[in-house]
Structures are given as C-alpha cells and as structure tokens.
Amino acid sequence: MDLKNFFQPKSIAVIGSSKHPRKIGNIIFRNFIDLRYEGKIFAVNPNAEEILGQKTYPSVKDIKDNIDLAIITTPAQIVYPLLEECAAKKIQNIIIISSGFSEVGNVAEEEKLRDFIKKKKLNVVGVNCLGIYDSYSNLDTLFTPRERMDRPKKGSLSLICQSGAIGAIMIDIMAQENYGLRRFVSYGNATGLDESDFIDFLGKDDQTKAICLYIEGLRNGKKFLEICKKVCKKKPIVAIKAGITTKGTEAVKSHTGTLAGSAEVYKGILKQANVLRAESLEELFNYARLIERGKSPPGNKIQIITNGGGVGVLAVDELSKRGLELAELDKQTIATLKKEMPPIVNIGNPLDLVGDANDARFKFAIDKVLEDKNVDILLIILLPQTPTITINIIKILKEIYEKSTKPICLVVPGGSFANTIKRELEEYIPSFSSPSGAATAIKGLLDYNNQIAKSKKRKKAKIIQK
Amino acid sequence: MDLKNFFQPKSIAVIGSSKHPRKIGNIIFRNFIDLRYEGKIFAVNPNAEEILGQKTYPSVKDIKDNIDLAIITTPAQIVYPLLEECAAKKIQNIIIISSGFSEVGNVAEEEKLRDFIKKKKLNVVGVNCLGIYDSYSNLDTLFTPRERMDRPKKGSLSLICQSGAIGAIMIDIMAQENYGLRRFVSYGNATGLDESDFIDFLGKDDQTKAICLYIEGLRNGKKFLEICKKVCKKKPIVAIKAGITTKGTEAVKSHTGTLAGSAEVYKGILKQANVLRAESLEELFNYARLIERGKSPPGNKIQIITNGGGVGVLAVDELSKRGLELAELDKQTIATLKKEMPPIVNIGNPLDLVGDANDARFKFAIDKVLEDKNVDILLIILLPQTPTITINIIKILKEIYEKSTKPICLVVPGGSFANTIKRELEEYIPSFSSPSGAATAIKGLLDYNNQIAKSKKRKKAKIIQK
User: Fold this and answer.
1) Residue B161's closest chain A neighbor by CA?
2) ipTM of the prediction
3) pLDDT tens for residues A63-107?
4) Measuring CA to CA, which residue among A430, A453, A442 is closest to residue A157?
C-alpha cells in the first residue's frame, strides 16, 4: 500500500478549517500557512468566506484541483457525510482527527465509518488521532500549539503511536533531547489503517532507520506478526505495549475499548515478531538511538572510558546487571597507555582518566582503545563539569565518531551545562544522561544484532535443506 | 560529635589560596568572596602578598583570630606539615581537598595522616574530596566552577557522597531539576570522618528531612548499621551502593582501593540498617523526594488523575509492576463526578479527564478524589501540551497541595514547556517527568512507612515483654 500522500501530498484540503485561533481546525490550517508547506492548501468551511487570508470552499466538491489528502477536523456527528463527499471527489487519503466515536461508547457511528471505508477502499488515518508529522516535508497536522510542544529536527527515527497524548509527549521529548525524527503517525482508533500498515510502509522508507511503536492493543495479531518479521530483517522495531500488567490491561480496555489481550500473549507476539520491547518512553528512545546509527559491533566486549571514577563503577554495575560483557584491553594497549598517560590514570575497565583529564588525554585514550582488537563497543562517560575539559571536546568526539567503524555511545551526566554539551553531541553520537540509559542502548544493539544473526542462520539452514 | 563548624564556621582559612584563576585554591577562595560569605576568610600562601584583593598569611600560625575551619588545597606532599600547623594553631575542623594518596597507591602517606588525625583528635573531611556545600550558609568548597556546574536552591535533602565526581553530578542534577538542597558533603577517602559521622550529624539536623548517600565501600559496617538504624527512625536514608555486581565490586577496588565486600553482604547491611537502596541517581532522588515532604498516607491505595489516557495506562503498569495498589473510588465520588463532568470523562482508575480538560475540570476532580476515604495517595499526570490547560494550573495545584494531608505527586511529561511547568511546580509538589519516576517515589514512601510501623511495633512488643 502506498501511503506517501499522507506525508508529502501535493494538495491538501482541511475540512473544518476555522477562524477561531483555539479551534483544532484553525491550528492545523495555520500549521500549513506558518510552515509554508510546499503544496496547495484548501480551507473547507461552508460558514466562512476566508480563513487566515485564504479563500474557503463550502465543500471539497467545490475544489477544482485533485486533492491528495483531506484532513477532517469537525465534530463527530458530521464526519460521515463529509467522508462521503471525499469519496465522491475521489480523495483516496483522509485523516480524521475528530474524536467522539468508540472511545466514548459511540461504537455504531464508528462501525458505519469502518464499513464505508472498506467499501470505498479509502486509506484513512484515525478517527480520534493527532494525525501526521513529517519533519522533511513539514506536513504537520498536530493541534498541539508550538509554544506548548516543540517539534524535533530532521532525523531517522519514525514513530507510530496509537495514543495521541503519548504521541505528543514522544515528539516533545524528542525535540527537547535533540533526537532526530523522520515521520510520526498517530492513528487513534484505527478505523481505517492500523499500526501494521504503517510499519510496512515505513519499513520500505529509506530515510527511516528505526521504528518506535506505542500500542495498547492489536486488531490483527497475525498481520502484525508477518509484517514485523519482514521489516525487522531490515531495521529495528522497538515497542511499548501499554497494559502489560493485569491492572494495566483493564485500564486499556476502559481507555480505547481495545481488547488488550493478556499481557503474556502480547509479550509472546512481540518476541516472535522480533520486536524489542521497552517498558517506558525513556527506554524506548534509549533502545532505538544506538541501533539506528547503523554501526555494527564486531563482538560484544564493551570498554568504558571516563574522567569520573565513581560514574565508571556505576556503569560497570549497569552493564553487568544486563548481562553485558566488559572488554579486557590488549597488553599492547595497556603498555602504550602506561607509557603516555600520567601515573594517576587507572588503566583497566573502566579506563579512568581521572578528574584532571583534559581534551588531549581523552583523545589519546579513545584512539588507542578503538584500535584495540579486544574492544567491540566503546562507552565514553564525559564529566564536563571539570575545568580541564574545554568545549573543543565536541569537535574531537565528533571526528572520532565519524572515523570509527565500532559503535560508540556517550554519557554526559549533570545539569544545564552538561545537557547543552549532550544535546550538541547528540547531533553526532548517541548521547545519554546516565549510565543506565547507555547500558540499555548497548543491550538493544546487541539483542538486535543477535536476532539478525539468528534469522540469517535459519535462512542459510533452509537453503541447505533444500 | 558536633560538626556544625564544617557548615557554618565563623572564621575560615583557605590554605593554598592561589592567584591563578584555574587553580583549585583560587576557585575555592573566590567562592567565599563571590558569595559574600558571612564570616572571616583568611588566605594562606607563603608566596603571595595578596589574593583577590585580600591580604595573605604565610601560615595559619600567623593569623591572630581563632579559626573554626581550615581548608587545605595544596599538593599531597605538603599536606602533612600543614596539618601539623593546623593542630598547633588548635584548629579542630579541617577539610583536605588534596588528592594523591591511597587512591593512587600512596598508602603510606595517607596512613601517616590518619594516625596524626587520630592522635590529635582532629575532625577531618577528605583527603581527595570536594568538601562541603551548604545552601543556607553559602559555604562552598566545590572547585567545579559555577558556569560549569549549577548550585541548587535551599531545601531539605542532604547528600553524603564518597566520590567527588558523583557528588558534582548530584548537585548539578539537583540544580537543573529545581530540587532543594540542605547540605552536601563529599568525604573522599574518609581519612578522618566517614559517612556514618555525617549521617549521625545530619540525622540531628532539623532542616534535613531526608539523607541521600552514595557509597563505594564501608570502613566500619557495625558503626554504619547502628547509626543508620537510629537515624532511620526519624528520617529516611536512601543509598546507592556502587559496585553491587561482581564486576562492579572489582571496579570499586581499583577506583578507591576500598575493599568493597560482596554485593550480597552490602545488600544485607543496607536492608538491616533500614536504608532504602536505589540503583541509579535518578532512582535515588525519586525515592527521596516524596518522603521528605513528610505527608504520611492513611493507607496504600493510589488514585491516578490525568488528561492523557495513554499515560494513565502506563502509570497503572508502573504501579502494578512494583506491587502497588490502585484505589477504587467510593460510589458517592463516582456519582458526583458523573453528575458534574462531561460524559466523555472516563471515571475509573485512572480517572481520565480526557484531552480537552481545562484547569477547572482538574480542580474539581482532584478536590472530590482527595475527599474520598478510599484514596490514600494521589498521582496527578498533567499534560500541559493541550491548549485548554493554562498556567493558572500552577496556582491551583499549589493550593490543593498545601491543604491536603494526603501525599500527592505529579508527573509532567514532555519537552521544554512541560519541563518549565514541572520545575516551577517542584517548588510545591514532588514532580516527576515520567510515570516510572512517580511510581518509584510512591514505592519509597510506602516502604519507609512500613519500616517505621514495624519498628514501632517491635518497640511496643518489647515494652509489653518488660
């Protein structure tokens, strides 16, 4: 199914565009105007002559141009006739933002829509959703105002999110942390398209390097399983399944009316589908951010380099707790470090460059460690609070990262200065605020790689059998 | 032991004060000048006439005034004779910032200091430490410059920290998140005073409502156990023990030379001492921040109120995972809410006020829920991204919190706008960025209360036996 017109349509009709600045139909229409969306935008509203200086049309049927995408923002009770008009106008792709359907007990109205969508073979996102955000095309149907919720920079993570509220928070966190976003879709009640349709589509999208997913339930487990298995061979999928405890399952039922199924069944499906399961939003992004950079480790041995001994110890605990393995530096590396470093430097794992380490000591140590064949993954913990570190470290780390074939991740713990450094470095290197975040990321990377290796093995075995 | 002169001395000598702005002896001396410390400050340096416009003294012996506190910042090799001079001048309290002792293998020099300290009955913080920060008196011996590391506002959490690096990060995080700090001490190698001495002292400090601890090892487990048991009856102690895995234990040994002991032994000691154990810095603060507010729940039933259904479900999962219990609203509360709220509001647990909730809907629902006898603890999850919430919500929540005898905690997830709201509300209500943080906090509160209840029971049983 080609869903690209949801993300980069050439012509758009906003049905229910409004003059009132707090109305959803105003905010969404304004997004297109403010962001100077490259494409034709039509405002549809039978009760207004112009909105934000643009001519309005009483109905989509009055627009002469072809419409690639319609966005319906009206109250629930008039959605059905508007959808009929869209179908009559041969609009294939429709986002229905409107809420007030099965999630509030109005099941009959939603079923009526569902039948019509099926009959007319329409592609519909919604009902009861935030819609789409594409950081490349600037398509933005989010009705959360920008002064309340930031938008992330361009990047290669894509988000698929059942809940609008969770979607808003995810986008907001991504912007705040300087994570790069490719595409976002909140599909709400899945009256038309569901998570699997978008996993399939974004699986084929070259700009998407990893898919993050939030689901409360699945309408079609078999379809989900098949599509995820296929997509996971090419790129990782990380998912939060909300309602993973008995009480949580009950809460899901009352939230979206979805039959959430038992927690154990869902854990099984996700595992079988090769989807990495995260338990919180923090964990979701931590899992995805290292894998999506695409550096594959030659093995599973991790070396820690830091200028803070205590944080180094905490990092060892975090890695060990997850069953991850520490590297043992080669004799040659140890000899070189001993020769070139001041005697107070603690050569081991962690390699503790101690509190007075400067940029040059970091650079020398990292270079040597990356050359070491015993090291597969590098974890750098940088404490920029000490006055011997300068902001030149950003450039140094960037250059090291670009040259390295081995995965590197960075921890910059602390307050406002540390966060500024971390946000800037996130541009180049997956950067975390705590050892536990980085350990989660490394675990995710190794789990994904194991999974890929296993599936290749199985494929090979099958070929040999034939 | 009275250690108050480490925190609010009337006269201070900075031994090793320096003219060079990047030297530790300059940064520390400058802290006193810049913060206009209320007390006499003397710069000691035999090779300078004046530092930062202040007269210098060749030795502490040349100062006529009594000195309540000396701070030694010189290289390791001259610390011993300087300590002798302090003793000769009858200075009781000394902070030795200097490093280069047992942590780099220079065990003999440190033992020499240790013997002298014992013999002269001196109170010594250090060696190899960051020293003291007191947000009330403005005493600040931290050599991490303020442009690199923020300082927290006044508050009631006190920190005791073996590692200087971890101490710096903790302070930096507290400032960033707007957590209030009472007193901080980094005691490094514990050549003189150790964690137990400060736990004892801060246990008696009325302004300290909770103690956070970072330890790598204990010199005297028995002393620690006795003091913690006593202090924990009055206020909670939350601790991170670094090196809680086998590999981590090895890393501790190489970091501070402390015999870290087996992880299991330490877990046992902390449990016996009634200390809550955290596994990360995030968890440490999350555990401490709700308890320290001092609101005691009448029972263990938790009610969630939110304007984001999905986050409500995640919160249920987080509570359930920790074995925490959800409240069931009383029939009367349900009837009142049904009557007054729009029909789309989902009355249950979570109580989902849905996406278009405004300030007034929040206020009404919270008031009713707090009156409900079935509710012991309230967890509010506020999504301020939606345009129907105004910044007036800050005032509303503040007033509700002040009136309530039941514990309340708040989650404000998201990006920069959400963080601003969260930081402001942290002033009044323990505020978290994710459901998992709040769930940890509630778990900590209930664990602490159970512990207090048990120890009261034991005491009563003993009295009856007598």
Assistant:
1) A310
2) 0.91
3) 999 999 999 999 999 999 999 999 999 999 999 999 989 888 899
4) A430
